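RECORD TYPE: inverse folding
INPUT: structure tokens
STRUCTURE:
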């Protein structure tokens, strides 16, 4: 009777599941050991993968912050309706009441010429020059908030006989949405290209490791070891490369976030905004590390599977 393969020899009191689990743990620990024994090539591989992963992730983070900022801006969907200078204040109030009754309008705020002049004095620094004016040149202003997207509202307000100027920011919001859609598509393209590059880097690293252990693999094949038994350490090696590279990508993006957060907050405060950069949450960070490890696992699996198909001895 031929001896059982080394991976199938069971210790007394051990079942097959325990042996299988022990080999998984051993493969994982041995993979970290092999990485530490080659610090130069390990750092190079992890660095290339980390940068490749950080680029699309950074673009996604930037787009998410821009979209969040755009969402805050779009909450103010007001349409500014400047009435003609000859419209008296009672007529302006009556017009505001009529607009409030429309189903496509959620809110209407009336700003009188006196309120507009006070705001202009406070914000422009021209209080002395404005005080010399005999008459108030400002018209009444109606700030109209639509119930929905406000499509067609500006056109209907322009048709009012009391309307003089109607300002609506729908055009720039549409352009911003277009840029955000383009940026999202660009992020997916970069993720696909750089993800493929990271997969190739892992595959090449594992291929070099396979070449160094060629004799060991041949001996295991002659002893009857299965492909899964031989492939397992290399799979864990690729997963370890991916996990550490994902952590490096998060570290790079966190450093960039910390370096940009304070200047951006100061810039936002100068415009009267409380906007601040928002980084990755803990859930996102875990997903990135797990996804990077899966990417490394796939790259190692493809290379190892190709090698084993080429070298598996055939029965004669």
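DESIGNED SEQUENCE:
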């Amino acid at each position: 009777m031929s001896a059982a393969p080394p991976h199938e020899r069971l210790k007394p009191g051990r079942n097959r599941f325990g042996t299988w689990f022990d080999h998984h743990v051993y493969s994982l620990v041995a993979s970290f050991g092999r990485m530490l024994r080659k610090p130069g090539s390990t750092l190079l591989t992890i660095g290339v993968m980390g940068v490749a992963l950080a680029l699309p992730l950074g673009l996604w983070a930037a787009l998410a912050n821009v979209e969040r900022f755009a969402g805050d801006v779009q909450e103010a969907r007001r349409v500014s309706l400047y009435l003609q200078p000859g419209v008296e204040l009672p007529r302006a109030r009556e017009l505001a009441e009529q607009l409030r009754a429309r189903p496509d309008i959620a809110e209407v705020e009336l700003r009188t010429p006196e309120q507009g002049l006070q705001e202009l004095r406070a914000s422009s620094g021209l209080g002395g020059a404005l005080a010399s004016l005999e008459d108030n040149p400002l018209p009444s202003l109606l700030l109209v908030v639509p119930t929905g997207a406000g499509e067609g509202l500006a056109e209907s307000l322009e048709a009012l006989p009391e309307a003089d100027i109607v300002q609506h920011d729908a055009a720039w919001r549409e352009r911003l949405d277009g840029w955000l859609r383009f940026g999202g598509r660009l992020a997916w393209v970069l993720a696909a290209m750089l993800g493929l590059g990271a997969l190739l880097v892992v595959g090449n690293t594992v291929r070099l490791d396979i070449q160094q252990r060629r004799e060991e693999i041949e001996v295991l094949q002659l002893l009857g070891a299965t492909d899964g038994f031989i492939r397992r350490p290399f799979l864990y090696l690729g997963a370890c490369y991916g996990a550490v590279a994902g952590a490096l990508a998060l570290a790079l993006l966190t450093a960039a976030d910390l370096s940009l957060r304070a200047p951006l907050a100061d810039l936002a405060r100068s415009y009267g905004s409380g906007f601040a950069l928002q980084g990755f949450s803990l859930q996102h960070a875990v997903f990135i590390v797990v996804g990077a490890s899966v990417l490394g696992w796939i790259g190692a699996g493809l290379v190892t599977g190709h090698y084993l198909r080429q070298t598996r001895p055939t029965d004669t």
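NOTES: The first helix runs from residue 16 to 37.
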